Amino acid sequence: MATPGRKKAATGASLLDALSPQLMSLVEASLGHSLAAPSSVRNGLSSANASPPPQRSTVQPPANRGESVIPQSRSSDYIRVGVLNPSEIFLLRQADSPGFVVREHFLGPAAATAVHDACLGLTESTPMRPAQVGVGKSTAVTCHVADARGDQLVWLPHDKTALPPPLQHLLAQIERLMHGLAKAAPELGVRNVKSTQLAVFPGHNTRFVPHVDTYDHNNNAKQHLSRRITCLYYLNPSWESSHGGALRMHLQDGTTWDIPPVLDTLVVFRSTDVLHEVLPTTVHRLALTTWYYGGGSATTIPSTPPSATSPTPTTPSFATNIATRTTSSCVTGSNQPLEVAGGDATSTIFVSIPSYCDSECQPTVAHLFATAAAPSRVFVGLCLQHEQDDQSMDMYGEHVRIKRMRPADATGPCLARWETQQLWKGEAFYLQIDSHMRFRRGWDVYLIDQLRRCSNSPQGRPRKAILTTYPLGYTLPNEIPNDTRPTLLCASAFDSHGMLRQCGKVLKTSPSSPVPSAFWAAGFAFSRACVIQEVL
């Protein structure tokens, strides 16, 4: 009997035609670009019954850009984006420089067209609202002022997997640039905290008056989370000078520089001091903006325990300091505690964290301690692969043990995780996580309770269980989702290197006990610490 797959092959179709839109999205995201597949598979966030956006198949890069258009199914039409070059980094880090750089042909013709189509689909399927502007000396008060700003916008979800693959690819390339900038110019204070919006100016001479993206220039700007770098990506394939709508940069010497909002142009500039405006536009003007944030040392990150140079803190004083901080903005009101009646609040826990140039590492460690029911029993082993000699972790005293490495010596997460395990000193339980994570209050008691629920097999024999999953994402700086349903690890697809990729599927209901899984996730695994000695 012929299988459905063989019947497909006989008609000239491929396995891609049988993939669900969700699975196709995962495959495309892992490859970094879209695959040649039916348009119904590529329809991003739009509904299955939605009609395709008008004229998408005819979208072409501007004719005067000197690039030939290669069919979208050919990977050679996708530019592999590098890092910012030294000249660009100089322009962004020097206070007396213009403060902006322009990258034309950022993704390449086919990738840019795919992003344009995806964004056009979002404008058709997602409600957009009038943009607001800050009134006064900060952005604390906002209102809609049509004469000042005439665009409409929608904020994109923080979970990139909810976006169409072309958008995932674009955001990944921008993130690569920002990662390099954060390493090369640490004084900019750029963290892995970002927000992205899609904005449309509907024509009719709508504009955005001169402004900077970060309004708070007093001392609070250094303490609060604030925009540091703006990344503008333009999505207009047939732009003419008569349309208006250029991005006008105001230089410090009083002159201006106009940048046409042409498809596949990326503009990166300092959010804090680069004055810019959108000139009146007579046609629809589409742009995607991603802001990278910095700061947060006072209000979004709690104070730390006494430093290692001070007398070694006793357990009660450490616990008291942490308990006091749980009322700070590090733990928001939406962070509901994980209630466990009569749980274990004394057994020690060793937490393994490798960090490769991750600006979220320090906030992760702070949140880990601030949300623990018994923080004095928590000890962290940290492999810190950072360029600068970051001393902030030293302030945790004996509760954070550090192995420092130069990023140039890093060979991947496996070595880094092994290095953290060498810092284990006999704690009873072992938690392995990534360096960008947030926690619910009482996570330590809850995990021990859940582990003990699966410690025996159905036949009553003891077994060595590991709790593992892909945790849900969080909204920076410290907002975690209200959804407490667990995620189950599932196989998704093989990537271009032949490696099986996993994904986390949220269960419809919360089971009464942990669910067996065929897979293991390195980014979150909790077990008894004997796993360090017995699993090689």
TrEMBL record:
<feature type="region of interest" description="Disordered">
    <location>
        <begin position="37"/>
        <end position="71"/>
    </location>
</feature>
<dbReference type="InterPro" id="IPR006620">
    <property type="entry name" value="Pro_4_hyd_alph"/>
</dbReference>
<dbReference type="GO" id="GO:0031418">
    <property type="term" value="F:L-ascorbic acid binding"/>
</dbReference>
<keyword id="KW-0223">Dioxygenase</keyword>
<protein>
    <recommendedName>
        <fullName>Fe2OG dioxygenase domain-containing protein</fullName>
    </recommendedName>
</protein>
<dbReference type="GO" id="GO:0005506">
    <property type="term" value="F:iron ion binding"/>
</dbReference>
<feature type="compositionally biased region" description="Polar residues">
    <location>
        <begin position="40"/>
        <end position="61"/>
    </location>
</feature>
<dbReference type="InterPro" id="IPR005123">
    <property type="entry name" value="Oxoglu/Fe-dep_dioxygenase_dom"/>
</dbReference>
<dbReference type="InterPro" id="IPR044862">
    <property type="entry name" value="Pro_4_hyd_alph_FE2OG_OXY"/>
</dbReference>
<feature type="domain" description="Fe2OG dioxygenase">
    <location>
        <begin position="192"/>
        <end position="294"/>
    </location>
</feature>
<keyword id="KW-0560">Oxidoreductase</keyword>
<keyword id="KW-0408">Iron</keyword>
<dbReference type="GO" id="GO:0016705">
    <property type="term" value="F:oxidoreductase activity, acting on paired donors, with incorporation or reduction of molecular oxygen"/>
</dbReference>
<keyword id="KW-0479">Metal-binding</keyword>
<dbReference type="Pfam" id="PF11397">
    <property type="entry name" value="GlcNAc"/>
</dbReference>
<dbReference type="Pfam" id="PF13640">
    <property type="entry name" value="2OG-FeII_Oxy_3"/>
</dbReference>
<dbReference type="InterPro" id="IPR021067">
    <property type="entry name" value="Glycosyltransferase"/>
</dbReference>
<dbReference type="GO" id="GO:0051213">
    <property type="term" value="F:dioxygenase activity"/>
</dbReference>
